[in-house]
Amino acid sequence: MKNIFLKSGLSLALIITMTVSCKKNAEKTLPDNTDLKTEKTEMNENFSCKMLGVIASGPTTEANATTRWKWPNGSTVKVRFIGGSVFVRNKVKQYAKSWEPYANITFSFVADNAAADIKVGFDEPGYWSYLGTDSKSRSKSMNYGGFDNNTFETEFRRVIVHEFGHALGLEHEQAHPDANIPWNTQAVYNYYMGAPNYWTKEEIDYNVLAVNSRTGLSYSAYDSKSIMHYPVDARFTTNNKAIATNNTTLSQGDIAFIKTYYPGRG
Ligand SMILES: [Zn+2]
Questions:
Q1: I need a labelling partner for 210 at 20 to 30 A (CA). Which of 8, 118, 186, 243 fits?
Q2: CB–CB of 187/238 below 8 Å?
Q3: 47 touches 173 (CB < 8 A)
Q4: Residue 172 C-alpha to ligand 1 middle, in angstroms?
């Protein structure tokens, strides 16, 4: 669940720029009461997300997160909105709270003109977030492009829980050092270079194919159920097996990890 992607060009400096942005391809997802079989068919299969930020040392994954961006345990983290309708704002508030029974962090939503640690916008393409406390210095630290009154409930849940995982300092799970995903790299490049992502090879390497070094990581076991895992379509693997294509809420692994990362609840 949380990995960091190194941006090329930042050489030997210990500071590594990293960006987490998430993008959806799909139109909409189905409401919560939809059975999983149907939901999977309708889900956005290629949800993607870029992480943005700066990291001091190696990446972290799943049950791991980089300590540099960790909030002090027990913190109340202030969140404010930049634009967005009351409807989508309420969805963000609702699903951000999914972490609170397990993480000893409280998200407090404040007025638009108040000082805040996390700043949530809706007007840029795609989904993205900075990691943890790196959010504090950003004029906007999280974005939900395309959210509106027609967005399906499952999409709200999957994306918001995922982005607030980044806001807690978590990274993408598919880059876990034990993920061992048999990528069909050409298929991955072909897909992400096209609509709606239009990523460069470098961006694909950084956001999709990167594998975290164990150095500097604290991590739990690889969790293919993690909400922080990209969906990996069968066409993207050499064994033609899909991975994590229906992760729409916190996994047991997510819960176990965040309980240890921010202990004191649950
Ligand atoms: Zn992400």
A1: 118
A2: no
A3: no
A4: 6
Domain membership flag for residue 106: yes
Q: Domain limits at 184?
A: 16-261
Q: Could you tell me if residue 76 is inside a domain?
A: yes
Q: How far is the CA of 51 from the centre of ligand 1 (A)?
A: 6
State in Å: Cα 191 to ligand 1 middle: 18
Write out pLDDT tens, residues 111-167.
Answer: 999 999 999 999 998 889 999 999 999 999 999 998 999 999 999 999 999 999 999
Query: Does residue 235 sit in helix, strand or coil?
Result: helix
Ligand 1: centre distance to CA 79 (Å): 18
What residue ranges in the chain does DSSP mark as E strands?
16-23, 48-55, 76-82, 106-109, 118-121, 127-130, 142-144
Report CA(131)–ligand 1 centroid distance (Å): 10
Report CA(166)–ligand 1 centroid distance (Å): 7
**Residue 54 resides in a domain:** yes
**What domain count does the chain have?**
1
> Quick one: how many helices (H) and strands (E) in the chain?
6, 7
CA of 43 to the centre of ligand 1 (A): 17
What's the CATH code of the domain at 117? 3.40.390.10
Rounded to the nearest angstrom, the distance between the alpha carbon of 244 and the centre of ligand 1 is: 13
Residue 6 banded pLDDT, cuts 50, 70, 90 = very low
